[in-house]
Amino acid sequence: MKLNKLLILTAITGLAFTSCENEMKQDPELDVVATGDGVNYDGQTITVQKGTPITFQLGGENDFLTFFSGEAGSKYEYKDRAQVATDQIESSKLTLDIKTEYGKLDMIDFKVLISKTFEGLNKSNFEADSILVEQHDGWQTLLSTADLPNPTSTKSYELDMLPYLGERVALAFVYKGVDNSQTQPKVYIQNLQIVNQMTDGTSSSLAASSLGFTPLNMMYKHNLSDQKSMTSNRPYGTVSNNTSGIWNLSNISSFFIHSSGGGSPLKYSWLTSNLFMVNACTPDAGTPLKNISQSLDSYTYTYTEAGTYTATFVATNGNYDQQKRITREFTVKVTE
């Protein structure tokens, strides 16, 4: 009797699993119709004046729905793009602001470097890494101490990256104290990004958060008195406070290396990025409209600039094991 019950339970469980599995394999459905006052729609092309809302009436069963407007940063064709073709780039700039505080610039030797031949840090062998950065002969100087603003002020920079397109490069900041008769300044790196301007008038950017900076705290073995508060990962670590001569990356849009008072030991630290492509970019992203627990009958979107766009709706059914998706594309002509 117990065996029969077990067999029945197993059969029911198997049927339930099969049913669930089949349900997950069901193709998504999606019907889209463009409507609205001042909206002309012929089944494929939408014509509308800029600033006029377009209401998309939605039908069909699907688990997830995403909308790509076709504007810069939201193009379905670029959803998997990790690099911009070099022949599509008109200009490429490394832009950043540098702010200095306290002391005099004469107290430090500061450099912003770039290399097309740097092999990258090991990140687990400090001795090898410290020798590597110092002896690498491929570093090119983008900025030096003479280019910095005097404390306390901020200066903006635009550095040409066109010579580095298509190359795997490393970016490095070097802070080295040379005189401790006065305060060694605090240096902020702010709003760092690489901006690529395309031939079609659009642009893409690569933010500092994508570059994977790693410090090399060159003085960590000296156990300096004003660095004692740093107790973990002293060779490669960062801090979240004001520790003299140590990089603070808590806010990657405004990171800094802290000052040292007059008479304090000279500080020395590198901050080196991972290898990256100058023409790398963040893939375009759509706007999530619904998930499996929601329903949606319509979606309204407004284009604010004249132009021709490809609007794309992506409907997806799936689970951890599989996904099926369909798309619906429309040409949107936005007039003045």
Automatic annotation (TrEMBL):
Pfam families attached to this UniProt entry: DUF5017 (PF16409)
Q: Where is the DUF5017 domain?
A: 19-207
What is this protein called in UniProt? DUF5017 domain-containing protein
Q: Which organism is it from?
A: Mediterranea massiliensis
The organism's taxonomy opens as: Bacteria, Pseudomonadati, Bacteroidota, Bacteroidia, Bacteroidales
